[in-house]
Model the fold of this input.
Amino acid sequence: MSKSVVILTGAGISKESGLDTFRDADGIWAKVRLEDVATPEAFERDPDRVHAFYNHRRAGLLEASVQPNPAHEALARLETRWRDAGPENQVLLVTQNIDDLHERAGSSNLLHMHGELLKARCLSCNAVSDWRSDMSRQSICPACGDAGGLRVDVVWFGEMPYHMERIYAALGDCDYFLSIGTSGNVYPAAGFVEQVRRHGRPTAQTIELNLEPSEGASLFHHCLHGPASEVVPAYVESLLDGT
Done:
């Protein structure tokens, strides 16, 4: 019998790789107003400021010291070994993170619901292109050649997250739902556990792996708390031991 796993990851899984979280006391939104850099209105009002914010974050992600940690690597290992245990088995990784650490660790069945920092989207032709350098109002779209229409391909506040239809379909059909490194207060992702409990398989198991209890911790069947680089590899091994 096939078994499917859906994994949701948030900023907490990348914190140990040297990337800032958002809602911690020392997180990104404690240092800059999201209304100034993470909304369509902010980009229309002051594109230079928005570009500068994401240029800084892009440069930080590309620093040599920022690498996948054992939690990223454990999830990539889970995907490979779970699939090897049965050809119909599947692990779908849904991340709220806009970094590429899951890809670098080896995960391949991956959905970025909030977009990707290393991609640009053209407002003129809607093409999405890889982008690893600074971006400005003078940047030229590789697809259509238009200048001035590029923005980072990140879902801003007030915009619809990507891949929602596929995500909800997977939540309704999974045997395990793992939530890793999330605050539990940002929707729609914060509602995924309730979606599984109410509309998923009756036997589906929900597990929270987090540094500390999230706001929705009581909704999970099981909770394991501690650093992601410790609790995620340990749980992955226990899951694989049962296959």
Summary: The mean pLDDT is 92. The radius of gyration is 18 Å. The first helix runs from residue 12 to 15.
